[in-house]
Amino acid sequence: MNWKAPRNESLRRAIENNELLVAELKGKVVGFIHLVVHEDIIDGGPNAFITAFYVTPRLRNKGIGSALLQRTLDEALNGGCLKVETSTTNQDARHLYERYSFEQFRGEVFLELDVKKYPKKRKRRDSAGKDLPKNATG
Ligand SMILES: CC(C)(COP(=O)(O)OP(=O)(O)OC[C@H]1O[C@@H](n2cnc3c(N)ncnc32)[C@H](O)[C@@H]1OP(=O)(O)O)[C@@H](O)C(=O)NCCC(=O)NCCS
User: Fold this and answer.
1) Which fold, 13-104?
2) Do the beta carbons of residue 38 and residue 46 sit within 8 Å?
């Protein structure tokens, strides 16, 4: 996978993979929700994660977000997903999610790696805990 691909490439892949649901008004996209299904080896089945959810500001509080969320949740659950997860810092979004029965379980928090702080010179170790040489692959 080419991680440097421009955003259009990411969008194209999301559309091809049926991960994107959009709301249209007069031929223009006014909102979207992006849901990725992944295998959960602990639960033993497919789980879903909402990575992005957006409605254009002038059309908010009219039910577009609710319609996108409900349709996406119905499709994920009818498609066999065992869980649907998401993460947000936005209070409006959180309120909406809670209206659709999302909960923060047992104080669970979402952690994100600070890529800039991640120590680049960190020593790589093999499965026995021995330091690997810099040019080792795998
Ligand atoms: C989160 C977001 C997508 C919600 O979209 P939206 O279209 O405003 O959502 P809705 O209109 O369905 O619901 C918003 C509120 O309007 C209310 N509402 C729904 N239909 C309504 C109507 N016809 N008239 C008045 N209010 C209405 C809903 O009850 C809801 O209120 P509540 O959250 O207090 O229950 C939008 O606020 C957004 O894009 N936020 C910025 C991006 C973001 O933070 N995304 C989440 C990251 S995952």
Assistant:
1) Aminopeptidase (3.40.630)
2) yes
pTM for this model (two decimals) = 0.84
Q: Which atom of ligand 1 is nearest to the CA of 86?
A: 48
pLDDT digits (tens, 9 = 90+) for 20-63: 999 999 999 999 999 999 999 998 999 999 999 999 999 999 99
125: which strand partners? 131
Element of type H or E holding 95:
helix 91-99
Residue nearest to atom 4 of ligand 1 (CA): 65
Rounded Cα gap, residues 99 and 62, in angstroms: 15
pLDDT attached to residue 46: 96
The answer to whether the beta carbons of residues 68 and 61 sit under 8 Å apart is no
Extents of the domains making up the chain: 13-104
Pocket test for ligand 1, best of 58, 64, 92 (most atoms within 8 A of CB): 92
